[in-house]
Amino acid sequence: MSAVGEHQVTSEIYSDIPVGSPEPGSEGYVTTKFYFRRPTTDPVAEVGKTEAALEYDSDGDPILERQQSEDVIQIKHSSSTSLRMVGLQVWRGALLLADWALHYGPSLLRGATVLELGTGTGLTSIVAAMHAREVVSTDVDLGGILDLIKTNIDLNKRLVKARSTVLGLDFFSKEWSKEILNKLKEVSIVLAADVIYDVDLTEAFVQTVVKIMNVKPKKTLYFALEKRYLSTSIFKMSTADLSLFTYPNDTPFVELDCTSAFNALTDKEKLYAHYLSQASWYGGLIVYVQTSPEAPLIFSLLHKLITAEGVEDLKQTAKESGEASEDDIKALLVYIAGVFANSGNYKGFGDSKIVPNLPKERLEKIILSSAAYKADPTVIQALWSACADSIYSLEPLQQHLGFSDKGITTYFTPNCTQKDSELVGNFMKKYNLEGYNNRLFKYENGSNTTYEIRMASVLEKNESEPFLMSDTIYEGCTFRVTRGDYSGLLDLVCQNLEKAKEYASNDLEKNMLEQYIKSFRTGSLDAHKSGSGIWIKNKGPVVETYIGFIETYRDPAGMRGEFEGFVAMVNKEMSAKFGALVANAEPLLKELPWPSTFEKDQFLKPDYTSLDVLTFSGSGIPAGINIPNYDEIRQSEGFKNVSLGNVIPTSFKGFRHQFLSDEDVALMDKYAVTAFEVCVGLHELLGHGSGKLFRKEGGKYNFDIESVVNPLTNEKITSWYDEGDTYDSKFTSLGSAYEECRAECVGLYLSLNENVLKIFGAEGEDAENVLYINWLNMFWAGGAKALEMYSPASKTWLQAHSQARYVILRVCLEAGEDFVKITETEPGKNLLLTVDRSKIKTVGKKAIGDFLLKLQVYKSTGDEKSAQDMFNKYSEVSDDGTYPWATWRSIILAHKQPRKIMVQHNTKLNGSTVDLLKYAATPEGFVQSWSERFPSSNVDSLLQSLWRKDAENFYAEPPAQLAAIC
Ligand SMILES: [Zn+2]
């Protein structure tokens, strides 16, 4: 396989150790000398000593006495490799484990047989071999790694005392060599250093370790791992990596459309939705303050740039500056969109930094020729100077979010580490405080440390609020709980929630908003919890909303919530279509390929409402959410499962469907949304709603055991659900993928019915196309998408729907007759999926019908054994035969598309009603939507003053431009 997107990576340790250039004829290898001194004392014998007897250096490491004479290990290695071949380099974990072996070897390794996994260059094995009886060094037999280990052992012959064996061992391989299996019977110590750097590999590694540890004699594993946020975060940048931190100019933009749902609202409901949206948008600006020190200034700068002149004028002035190309201007618009869509200069999904895809000098030129600059040169110049460097910086510690020794965060001041976070976490636990709505500021004054836990609130003074405790000493530090974070922005949130309250449709909504307002005004988290409790009681509202400090993904400590606000409406038009489907349920259920004896006595409509998003502020838009996150509320009051119906078809819209012919892509673009509605409606209502479970309860059967015949065997029913059995208890881990597959097959099968297509507004040729796209999309999802959710290491599916669709594709491929075809058009690079549409009603119908019948019969009769056998066969991802799926998975992953940016509507007051403002699904449309979302510059002043308030805590030296900006 040619690996697509294999960029070069370099171990960070080479910044500490000088590494020369490869010599000619060295095949790209360099040799590095690692100097060391052996310890004079045996640390195991030292264990009895009290900790105080040890002295520590400035990094907190114990100072050990060492022998004076220096020794050296020579290691031949690569100085940079592709990610696949990182074993050819020396990593921090190997240094650490080698250091450990140097100190503990004399006592712990003496006389032992040691096995090293993922040996790499051999550094750790060599040190172990200074003490052990035998060292078995293993690694994957790839790219000459095994030979490199042998060479390095030879290079250090002088030091190596143990017998050395080098063997191939691949974590992903099931079959291990006889030699390895024999050696395992002698091994008592297992070493592994920095051998895992992605999810698949981690799973495979753990399985390997489990297998090894189960072989007698008893073994001890010593494992060194550098803690990383993302596999890439420890790698130094090379120019190719820039693409990881930019939005490409061809980033797809899509409209998050909710027009029909919004238009179906009454004027009062529209006003309610409008003020809730305003509250959400203002609150969403808090996220900038929660992201990076510079983010509030970046917002302010970009926002001034796009409000001072229209987007077309901005493009024109940029062009006239004579410095910026069309691509540069586009890159600027895409950067603005990227920052605004993520509420800051770090991605909401993945936490990596966003930098502009145009050179700094050219961005500066555009800014200094803009109308914004002409209107207020001092402020624009000051904003630019204060954040230009941080906009572009890709220093390792700036690449991702994290504690200050790993990345960037503003949830903690930069003088805080994981240790501070743990101390504060313990304090908060002791005093029953939660993190959701606060940030942590640490102040050091001589030997005194003060931690300030700052709550988000409008009120800035701490007067007589019972939840605001007085200064408390804990573990020798002072803890102070204060409030007033984001004050100005939260005031705007509260003002708008007050107005929304006037248009609430019931008392629950009013009381809920009152509690939220109380929470945002005072900083009381309890008030937000009671608001959330009321929210759960407000079942099926026409306008749904949730607002506050909700998701904790981006706090490195995982407890502080990011502000988020959303407003969504029940899609009445869609609900009407779903209603018509339910009204037609009876005749439709009769068409399903099982006898009526296998159908429920009465059709029960499953609980399902789909909401269309009007507003979603924060760092990203999910397709569904399950909230609130407060555990005690979830247990006492429950939670809501909110499905954001317009987010999913929106994701189709901006999608370039790969692996399809041009004609199919065009049809897909035109009909995917309708096909998706048909699919969701049938899946949710008739799919999950259909079919009967045969039960025996209190000695009675809920079916006629004498007459009901199993259509697969033509014999009487021989199995059922006994007392206490449920579908989940019988089908266990297979259950959800199997049931999703059944629902999807019902969807495919009933989409053949013309009346169904008519309910969704498709007739004649349109109906034929919707039908075709419904089936094509299923196969496409099963073939071109699903494998992203498969783990080759554990050979398991990570997602029920993905597995279900893959199984359906396999079933139809098996049907043959050239109905569905997949070909590798460019070896290792591209695939083509085709469906013969003339065969849907014949070959397709029969294949899905037969399969669906089996799915239902096994489910009805509780025959999980037959279900397992059948389903597992189709779920298998093998590399043999006509369809080498395991290989194709790499092709599919290589075609993964850039994440799209959604363009949201605005609402605007128009007398006593509200208008919905829509924008083009382009960078220009996106930028326009944001200039109209906040037409005035008061938000800039607010963000600038919040930045100023934070600056002294987040900059070693606050930028000199401070005075001009604030
Ligand atoms: Zn489902």
Automatic annotation (TrEMBL):
GO terms for molecular function: aminopeptidase activity; dipeptidyl-peptidase activity; metal ion binding; metallopeptidase activity. Residues 1-24 are annotated as: Disordered. Keywords: Aminopeptidase, Cytoplasm, Hydrolase, Metal-binding, Metalloprotease, Protease, Zinc. The keyword Lyase does not apply. Its EC number is 3.4.14.4. Belongs to the peptidase M49 family. PANTHER family: DIPEPTIDYL PEPTIDASE 3, DIPEPTIDYL PEPTIDASE III-RELATED. This is Dipeptidyl peptidase 3. It comes from Frankliniella fusca.
